[in-house]
Specification:
CATH superfamily of the largest domain: ATP-grasp fold, B domain
Radius of gyration: 27 Å
Number of domains: 3
Oligomer: single chain
Low-confidence stretches: none
Distance between the termini: 34 Å
Structural class: alpha+beta
CATH topology of the largest domain: D-amino Acid Aminotransferase, Chain A, domain 1
CATH class of the largest domain: Alpha Beta
Bound molecules: guanosine-5'-diphosphate, manganese (II) ion
CATH architecture of the largest domain: 2-Layer Sandwich
Number of helices: 13
Number of strands: 18
Length: 381
């Protein structure tokens, strides 16, 4: 789970890592009030779950109060790599002497935390990693011992010469490692970690990725979860007893059982189509679930056809048919619907569909279902 820079900095502050003075705003007026408290100039930074904000125009310095409002209103609502900016961080501007990279990451190959530091920190660290990897110093940590002082000192000596700054950096590195362990993070990163012209050290940016599997131990961090619009829909579907995962294609699928749902997606792919979603209505027999399923599928404007692929066991085909007939009249569905009903109460289900005079494509096999669903959606690739 990703968290925002300002949230990661709160974790840093608790761990004793120095962070410059700052606040978070959701409106230009709020940003202005924070700037008034901190004093001008201020740096205004987009808070989104993605890196490279600086290059995308999401980090700007404001020198006057008018500029604070202007830049804040410009960054709020901005789209950065597909994510909308809803909050900005307003922080004290520091005079940077040197930008450093400090990071701890879980290395899946060695199954150990790895510390990475580089004197070439800042917005081009990816380039450094690619072109001059020797400028990044790494150290595998034995989790039984943690990051030891002499190890941290050695890393810090690769960044600075002045012994005071080296010691202070080593101490911050150890705090970063502890913050990473204590929050069950898979990544804790400071880029840039800066030395100011006055000789002070600050974490100017903060990135923490929390391991989802450790979150049950951190209810306070779990609260920081922000769902994407797609995840919100998936969550709503879950509350209605449906497993729904939105995908990129144009064929909406309603299936009973996770295995059949996976197979349905595979068959669509096999015949050159792309499923719009995974959707398992579950094993129970409830017409309402079909209506709910159609509701969620219709929220996805990319969907061009809908395929109900039902293998009746506990799920009875007549219940599915009833749900479908009711849903089509209630939700005013204009999309072509392909139906495959097999199994328990199949005849009864088919009779309900016939009598309703619904305009649907009734199919018998998986192959036929996939081919028709692809065709009525406007063809495959
Ligand atoms: P990122 O691009 O998403 O990683 O955002 P950062 O928070 O790392 O900011 C990008 C760059 O903006 C940094 O590398 C700095 O060069 C610059 N920057 C950020 N805050 C300040 C500040 O307070 N003072 C100055 N002079 N530059 C800053
Ligand atoms: Mn950064």
């Amino acid at each position: 789970m990703k968290i925002h820079e300002y949230q990661a900095k709160e974790i840093f502050v608790k761990a004793g890592i120095p962070v410059s003075n700052e606040g978070v705003a959701t409106t230009p007026e709020e940003a202005d009030r924070i700037a008034e408290k901190i004093g001008l100039p201020v740096v205004i930074k987009a808070q989104v779950h993605v890196g490279g904000r600086g290059k995308a125009g999401g980090v700007k310095i404001a020198k006057t109060r008018d500029e604070v409002r202007e830049i804040a209103s410009q960054i709020l609502g901005m789209d950065i790599k597909g994510l909308k900016v809803k909050k900005v961080l307003v922080g004290e501007v520091v005079d940077i002497e040197k930008e450093i990279y400090l990071g701890v990451v879980t290395d899946r190959d060695s199954n150990r935390p790895v510390i990475m530091v580089s004197s070439e920190g800042g917005i081009d660290i990816e380039e450094v990693a690619k072109k001059t990897p020797e400028k990044i110093h790494r150290l595998q940590v034995d989790p039984a011992y943690g990051l030891l002082t002499h190890q941290a000192m050695k890393l810090a000596f690769s960044l600075f010469d002045d012994i005071k700054i080296v010691s202070a950096t080593a101490s911050i590195l150890r705090k970063l490692y502890i913050a990473y362990v204590d929050s069950d993070a898979s990544l804790a990163e400071i880029n840039p970690f800066v030395l100011t012209k006055n000789g002070e050290l600050y974490a100017l940016d903060a990135k923490i990725v929390l391991d989802d599997n450790g979150l049950f131990r951190h209810p306070d961090l779990e609260k920081l979860r922000e769902l994407t619009p797609e995840e919100e829909i998936e969550q709503e579907a879950k509350e209605k007893g449906l497993s729904y995962i939105s995908l990129n294609g144009n064929i909406g699928c309603i299936v009973n059982g996770a295995g059949l749902a996976m197979t349905t997606m595979d068959v669509i792919n096999h015949f050159g189509g792309v499923p719009a979603n995974f959707l398992d209505v579950g094993g129970s027999s409830d017409p309402q679930k079909v209506k709910d399923a159609l509701h969620f599928i219709l929220l996805d404007k990319q969907v061009k056809s809908i395929w109900l692929n039902i293998f009746g066991g506990i799920t009875r085909c007549d219940d599915i048919a009833t749900g479908l007939v009711e849903a089509v009249s209630e939700l005013k569905i204009n999309l072509p619907i392909v139906v495959r009903l097999i199994g328990t109460n199949e005849e009864k289900g088919k009779r309900i569909l016939d009598e309703s005079r619904l305009d649907i494509y009734s199919v018998e096999t998986m192959e036929e279902g996939a081919k028709v669903a692809i065709k009525v959606a406007g063809g495959g690739e």
